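Progress report, Aim 2. The chain analyzed during this reporting quarter is listed below.
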Amino acid sequence: MGGHICILGGDGYLGWPSAMRFSALGYDVTVVDNYLRRALCARHGLDFLYPVPRLAERTALWEELGGRRIRFVELDLAEPENMRALFDATDYERLCGAPWPGEPETVLHYAEQPSAPFSQRDYRCTDLTIVNNLRVTSNLLCAVRDLCPHTHIVHIGTMGEYGTPDIDIEEGWLDITHKGRQDRFLFPRQGASVYHTTKIMDTDLMWFFVRAWKLRVTDLMQGPVYGLETEESRRHPDLRPYFNYDDQFGTVINRFIVQAVAGYPLTIYGKGGQTRGYININDTLQCVAAAVRHPARPGELRIFNQITETFSVRELARRVQEAGRRRGLDVTVAHVENPRTEAEEHYYNPTYKALRELGVVPHPLDDEVLDGMIEVVQSHAVRIRPEIIFRPAVKCETRKQE
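Predicted structure tokens for the chain:
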């Protein structure tokens, strides 16, 4: 395939696997990160399940194992001049110590504070989330407009932008007939957290820049991602993405699996009817690659719903419980008071077919995937910190034991 691709947030759970995937596909890859997520986890005592080398070590290991060179730049992209330096030949060579590979054909934008609970811990976390996320997006749009207007931006959004409306969720857009007239609008959105609201603002910013300056943007509305292994990470354990299991940065599947291994009840918030769309990390890589292969047109904001299945929290708990019992674990389930403001039973029917039409073949959340995740967690069980599985600061009165 080839070409130059720049991955913002390249240290992240999705950023690093994307870097390896595009490198394996023959791209010149530049990854950029300022280790914000690592710093926030360290500041608040939220460990990864297993140690994850920093990017300088991982890029060196990838090259040693036969991969192409991945260039790494440690940079705070919330500063506009830093962002612009990535798109200037002289500044790029100064930052990377490597020849300028040319304007990037694509920029993958993962460089945001990604946690909804963290965005509402306190006013400082809210401020950090809003300032970081919106400044990085704005800086990217301005840099592409001014320095490389033909570059295709692929942004990882979130299905959480839509909320849980009592109508079917279309892929980004909604055709409206009102008083005999018709038009097409962005699907109404109602984020359930400050983080999700910054993602809504990202979409609005991108839509404005697309209309005003004919940029090319694809916004991937992604559901929660699960999984630890990709084709590339199987070459060495140090190439795996990191794994959070706390209530701030850990996904519900991660948290349930660690609770099962640690002998702690799977803690369902409220009734457990909260339903969302989920996706395997390998399918995320498929989807992103498909979006890169088929770029948006100039002046187009293309939106895909990037999920493969929907599950309620109750259903996920049941699946993890069954997987744990297959491995000899005594897994119980506990309903606890919901610390979040959300509907615990609701309609949820999103459309997600456009990426399949581009050739994505989905992988379901099956027994093999869950068994593999449990096996990895069991191999690192001595590192599990019970005090961050479910924090005492969150009221967790048990309602029912199953």
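The radius of gyration is 21 Å. The first helix runs from residue 15 to 24. These observations will guide the mutagenesis work planned for the next reporting period.
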